Amino acid sequence: MKILGIETSCDETGVCLIETKETKEGVILTILGNQLYSQVEKHKEFGGVFPMLAKREHAKNLVPLLEACLKESNLWTPFHTLDKAGWHSDDKVIEEKIKEILFREGELFNELITLLKTIKKPDIEAIAVTNGPGLEPALWVGVVFAKALNQAWNIPLIPTNHMEGHIFAATLQKLETETSNPESKQNSKSYILNPIKHPAVALLISGGHTQLVLIKDNLNYEIIGNTKDDAVGEAYDKVARMMNLPYPGGKIISDLATKEQAEFPNKKTTYPLPRPMIRSGDLNFSFSGLKTAVLYTLKKIPVITDEIKQEIALEFERAVLEVLTSKVSQAIEEYNPQTLIIGGGVSANSKIRTSLEKICQKYNITFLVPEVSASTDNALMIAVAGFVNILAGKIANTDFKANGNLSL
What we know:
By secondary structure, this protein is α/β, with parallel strands linked by helices. It folds into two domains: 2-170 and 375-391, ATPase, nucleotide binding domain (Nucleotidyltransferase, domain 5); 200-369, Nucleotidyltransferase, domain 5. It has helices at residues 40-43, 51-72, 92-101, 106-116, 136-153, 162-169, 232-242, 250-263, 288-299, 306-335, 350-363, 379-391, and strands at 2-7, 12-23, 26-38, 126-132, 157-161, 172-174, 189-193, 200-205, 210-217, 220-226, 339-343, 366-368. The strands form two sheets. Strands 5-4-1-2-3-7-6 form a seven-stranded mixed sheet, with helices on both faces. α3 (92-101) packs antiparallel against α5 (136-153), α6 (162-169) packs across α12 and α7 packs parallel to α9 (288-299). Mean pLDDT is 93; it is low at 178-187.
């Protein structure tokens, strides 16, 4: 089965095409084409993602990325006027329907119609698109783009939860040997889709979310812990901004913390910070107070040197690690899962990965974590989640909207 994934929930525009095949060993998934455009440079001046700018960038990049993905996948077949199959330039009825779907996106409509009149319908069985959660204007563009493709090509449409995508990105285990397609410019990447041993607990950590999710069985979720205010990734970015460090700040803060630890491994911090809600008794999080504590600490320091930034970065990251590991340990003890999954952009943090892996070893449970390249927002995870939903019997439909607050 070939599935096209489309992701536009925040500031990454992603288009990915996968092919799945069931074997004795399990489901083998091959990436045929994978295109991603990051808007980070566009949003740096705002110190965070500006929603309407993100929406415009998605609209500008979706058609070029789709074209590149189809060509990478060898599914780009030029349409000739004598061909019977594919898009017909005189099919005004479908064109008007697409225009109605993209009525707010004139330039996107023009670019898409041009593409549709250029190629035949590709060999794709389903389209999975993120419909939430995320920034609603950004989500909206991806949703209407997917609906336009559904109208043009009559390919079933699967609305897909962004957080579910992060969960299933962690189930991909790269095969040791990559299958080379001599007709392709790149080697295709193949993975085996690891089944999740249930019950499982997922820690989803990103710029917009900090959640603990109990997965009772396949696609059956219960949120057992949530942030009361800032998400952990948001806290990283805001602390970086307080110290006049560039956006996004997560990796910069972590690198400074690593440098401080290496230079002064046994040094006691001069700037102690709180561990919010670490003894709250529940599984919820709060990082706003930690962020505010950093702000007040910085205000008391006359001159903030690079050395001071390093020390504060280390203490901040230690506080985050202690809170996350404490809550995860509590969740494991309460729910006795067979698997721990982590996902979301902050899961790329090597210290978080190492700490949680040690917890899994302690409790003798399976640890699933995505490749670093698949931890941030991407269309691969949406295509995979769409496939899992299709296997579970989810019915394709077009009667859905972008929902910024969509829950698992």
